[in-house]
Design a protein that fits this description.
The protein is an all-beta fold and 121 residues long. The chain is 0% helix and 50% strand. It is built from no helices and 11 strands. The strands form 2 sheets. Strands 2, 4, 5, 6, 9, 10 and 11 form a 7-stranded mixed beta sheet that branches. The termini are far apart.
């Protein structure tokens, strides 16, 4: 059974940082690209970042480029998202998603339950 379990969200002040984790199980983690996708209150899903299966190539939405960093540890079956210089508009539920390809093709067949990030003073 495929499982994706996010953690690391919380309440942080503007300008602060958080690191999100996504623990994966039930599939060969190192064979698939992964993404982070977020959903702000009352809004649709927004793709945030992706990483290829080996971890050597990363991709970012313009809204987070230069502030967020995606990474993965294939030995630990874990995906990460480092969030720096957080803004109020980053407030959202953050989901990790398993791609169907080894390079991002943005077709997701499994999602985690999400971790809430709230940026507020």
């Amino acid at each position: 059974e495929v499982q994706l379990v996010e953690s690391g969200g919380g309440l942080v002040q503007p300008g602060g940082s958080l690191r999100l984790s996504c623990a994966a199980s039930g599939f060969t983690f190192s064979s698939y690209a992964m993404s982070w996708v977020r959903q702000a209150p009352g809004k649709g899903l927004e793709w945030v970042s992706a990483i290829n299966s080996g971890g050597g190539s990363t991709y970012y939405a313009d809204s987070v480029k230069g502030r967020f960093t995606i990474s993965r540890d294939n030995a630990k079956n874990t995906l990460y998202l480092q969030l720096n210089s957080l803004k109020t508009e980053d407030t959202a539920m953050y989901y990790c998603a398993k791609d169907t390809c080894s390079w991002p093709c943005y077709e997701y067949n499994y999602w985690g339950q999400g971790t809430q990030v709230t940026v507020s003073s």
